[in-house]
Amino acid sequence: MDIKTVIDKLKSARDVSDAELEALLTSEDEDAAAYLAACAREVREKIYGKAVYIRGLIEFTNYCKNSCYYCGINCKNTNAQRYRLSDEEILGCVKEGYELGFRTFVLQGGEDPFYTDDKIVSLVREIKSVHPDCAVTLSIGERSEISYRAFFEAGADRYLLRHETASPEHYAKLHPAEMSWENRMNCLKILRKIGFQVGCGMMVGSPFQTTENLIADLRFISEFQPDMCGIGPFIPHKDTIFKNEPPGGLRLTLKLLSIIRLLVPDVLLPATTALGTIDLEGREKGLRHGANVVMPNLSPVSVRDKYAIYDGKICTGSESAKCIKCLSNRVASAGYEIVVDRGDRKRI
Ligand code: 5AD
Ligand code: FES
Q: To test ligand 1's pocket by mutation, which of 57, 68, 70 has the most ligand atoms within 8 angstroms of CB?
């Protein structure tokens, strides 16, 4: 099978067979990989030009009621130093971010029952009333349809909920029995129905992940046509049962970014912090493989190292202003440019 022909088909028809996806994912042909990246860049630049959208990430709680096996802030980890940001601290991060040019704020946290619907609703309302020109993204896990509706009605624009894996069997190897793949997938459907811009996504190289699993992920992404898609390598955390598992690979992650860009041409695709953690220039490389979003951390420096979902996370020591300066240089070195914009999906 000629890989370049598969890439051309992916780009023009956005549809390839499982066998073709498998050939693409397992190919070690350097020329083909470079061609795939060039196609992804071309598609991305046709829709978004050289613009890179920034999202100010506010990691407001690392309490979590779940115990996903891969995650360093799972509730079983007694070594994690738990914290919650107050409303004032969160609004302070937003204010600082606005001044730095952010027009999207992502409230991300573990599944923390302390933050009742009312608390989230009032936070969203407050941010939207101070900054009506900004988008608010929530990334707080699985909740009920009633909760999601309340958040949407309060003004939340987007919701990130990685599907983690499109295979129920693989899901069961990464999560305890009380967590349900069906419920997670159902949450994504509900979020879409309510009207959120919805983000899904998965880790690359998570324990037990097979090429077949990744093909199922790509099929799901292609069918669901998410507005956003978060893809980063798995990185082990020392206090989890996966501490000795190898991290996900750089090249496979980059390849997946490019494939997703071709499957969903107008998707908002971040070059993730995890990608920047496994490789010094991972985020720049991500941008050169079709990514068009970066999500710098706006959390107070005093808590940054506590939101440790994996080991070695970058940017935990830098002030927001320093980080954004560093990131602007990195984006420029990849040939792109950070813009002051809400950064909504440009539908093609
Ligand atoms: N390595 C990489 N990504 C991780 N996530 C959780 N734990 C890890 C890890 N060890 C990802 C999951 C989750 C998101 C918040 O972070 O995909 O949805
Ligand atoms: Fe955060 Fe470079 S982007 S320190």
A: 70
Ligand 2, from 57, 293, 318, 338: best to mutate by most atoms within 8 Å of Cβ?
318
pTM exceeding 0.85:
yes
Query: CA 39, CA 8: separation in Å to the nearest integer?
Result: 8
Of 225, 278, 294, 287, nearest to 257 by C-alpha is 287
Q: What is the largest CA-CA distance in the chain?
A: 58
Q: What is the pLDDT of residues 6-52, one digit of tens each?
A: 999 999 999 899 999 999 999 999 999 999 999 999 999 999 999 99
The residue type of 97 is G
Q: Is 332 exposed, middle or buried (0-12, 13-18, 19+ CB in 10 A)?
A: middle
Q: Compute, in degrees rounded to 10, the torsion defined by CA atoms 269, 275, 280, 285.
A: -40
Summarize pLDDT for 60-78 with one digit per residue, the tens: 999 999 999 999 999 999 9
Going by C-alpha positions, the residue among 191, 201, 228 that lies closest to residue 345 is 228
Residue nearest to atom 2 of ligand 1 (CA): 234
Torsion of CA 259, 263, 265, 269, to 10 degrees: -50
Ligand 1 contact, 156 CB (< 6 A): no
Domain 50-339, CATH number (from 3.40.1800.10, 3.30.420.270, 3.40.640.10, 3.20.20.70): 3.20.20.70
Q: Give the domain ranges of the chain.
A: 50-339
- DSSP for 79-118, written as a single string: TS---B--HHHHHHHHHHHHHHT--EEEEEE---TTS-HH
List Cα–Cα distances, 17 to 7, 166, 215, 219, 250, in angstroms: 12, 17, 10, 10, 24
